[in-house]
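Morning. Coffee machine broken again, so started the prediction first thing and wrote up yesterday's gels while waiting. Chain of 181 residues, entered below exactly as on the submission form.
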Amino acid sequence: MTTAVEATTFRRALGHFCTGVTVIAAMAGDEPVGFACQSFAALSLEPPLVLFCPGKSSRTWPAIEAAGQFCVNVLAHPQRDVSAVFGRAGADKFASVGWTPGPSGAPILDGVLSWIDCSVESVLDGGDHWIVVGRVIALGEHDAQRPLLFYRGAYTVTEPAEPTPGILDNLITWSRHDDWF
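Came back before lunch.
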């Protein structure tokens, strides 16, 4: 027997999973477009693939899909204002944010923690969202800042943990390395 899961209960439960905040950006002709996205993940090492999930009601996603190329901008903790701008509909989101074109031409935002330039590989149905698989074509250097994270409906930050001798060695050398990225 299957019980129905209420949307608010589902959202509250998944809100306990901490996510990074990204901006997915592309060029729609001569105009940059983009949106804030928490549903981003690494998918495959061989070939190098990532995924993100735009809502089916997104007005920006069709322009990115038509472009066929996009850049994932991984936001740094000081970029809460950038997340807020790209999380809203409407006005020119790039008016207050500096950027340069990446290898594909898609915008790389100034001050990001890192960036991942991609081409659209496939788009799958995912309920009220699309599941977009991107093939990685170029990667940016990473910055030493902390990431912008979202947890339980608010921005949060990581604190460096006291090192526990040997614990990370066990994780990195996990015997079933195909389970890990």
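Confidence is low (pLDDT under 50) at residues 172-177. Going to sketch it on the whiteboard this afternoon.
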